[in-house]
Design brief:
- This protein has three helices and five strands; from the N terminus they run ββααββαβ.
- The relative contact order is 0.27.
- A five-stranded mixed sheet has the order 4-3-2-1-5, with helices on both faces.
- Helices cover 27% and strands 35% of the residues.
- The chain has one domain: 3-Layer(aba) Sandwich (Trna Endonuclease, Chain: A, domain 1), CATH 3.40.1350.
């Protein structure tokens, strides 16, 4: 399986952002499970989930400080790449 994501180093913090379907960020249990499953792929750094609505607007779920920060970052500025999950 492959996921779109990014590792970001900002203001002394390193964290990951992973693209998921909107229903994942709308369900706390599913979001928490997704975050737990993605953490090992990114070396245990905090993981924030990102989903886009039908208009392309991003919604973030995860640590509140990181989610607030990411809400102010343009999507085109995020260094997206594909990650493989075994």
């Amino acid at each position: 399986m492959r996921v779109q994501g990014a590792v970001i180093r900002e203001q002394g913090q390193t964290f990951a952002v992973v693209v998921v379907k909107p229903h994942v960020v709308q369900n706390r249990a599913e979001a928490a499970s997704a975050i737990s499953s993605f953490m090992p792929i990114f070396g245990g750094v905090p993981v924030v989930l990102m989903a886009q609505d039908s208009r392309g607007r991003a919604t973030y779920y995860g640590r509140p400080d990181i989610s607030r920060f990411m809400a102010s970052v343009p999507l085109r500025a995020i260094p997206w790449r594909e990650y493989s999950i075994s």
